[in-house]
Amino acid sequence: MPGCPAVPTIGVTLPSRAADPQAQRRAERLTARYRAAIEAHGARAIELPPDDPLTALEGLDGVLLAGGGDIHPSCYGQTAHPKLGHVDQARDRFELGLSQAALGQGIPLLGICRGAQVLGVVLGGDLVQDIDSDVEDAKKHPAGERGKASYHWIEIAPGSRLSRIMGARRVRVNSSHHQANGRLGYGVRKVAWSQDGVIEGIERAGEHFVLGVQWHPERMWRRAPRQSRLFGAFVAAASGGGRDSYKG
User: Fold this and answer.
1) pLDDT in tens, 224-235
2) In the chain, is it the N or the C terminus that has fewer CB atoms within a 10 Å radius of its CB?
3) pTM above 0.90, yes or no
4) At what angle do helices 114-122 and 89-105 cross, to 10 degrees?
């Protein structure tokens, strides 16, 4: 209708199609959570499988880098840790290239769990390959039995984009990861961390929305309003030409 604002389109990255039907069904269920969160906040979601060309950015107003397995350490100049988990190198190549292109075009980027690590790597950083092995006095970050998430508190840096979005300095989040961002690249800021110092949120300086969170807000937003604000801010940025236009 004339005068109605356009609905932004956000691409959601996917793993390579699993050969195991059970694994494929699980991937589809997880992807549905991202789609539901995006659509509930006023945007259209489309899927971006790893075999798409980089022209996948055409028509997109934002990119959500979804959770998943480990990034191959060769992507950030390290050798494999003994506890390296499942890797999907086709997905690695696709997401790193897609993210680089999106950054160059000022397209908003939200990274969740693995996606936050993809952002850290494409922006010049590296990863902690196994928190339990490499972080002294580490708290429980990986999922528990049957994939049940752990929960812990994080601190959020004052004055950060994340702080403005969440409206809080301390937030309880879910946790199901064994890796995290390590050394950060130039212009990338640590904006959230757990008690043991593990990085839980990063963002790039500047007016364009480039934010990564280590937890899974797509699993929490229905019952946790602060988590809903993350998707609201992302959709607002996608609606506003890439700039951080969220008013809280």
Assistant:
1) 999 999 999 999
2) N
3) yes
4) 60
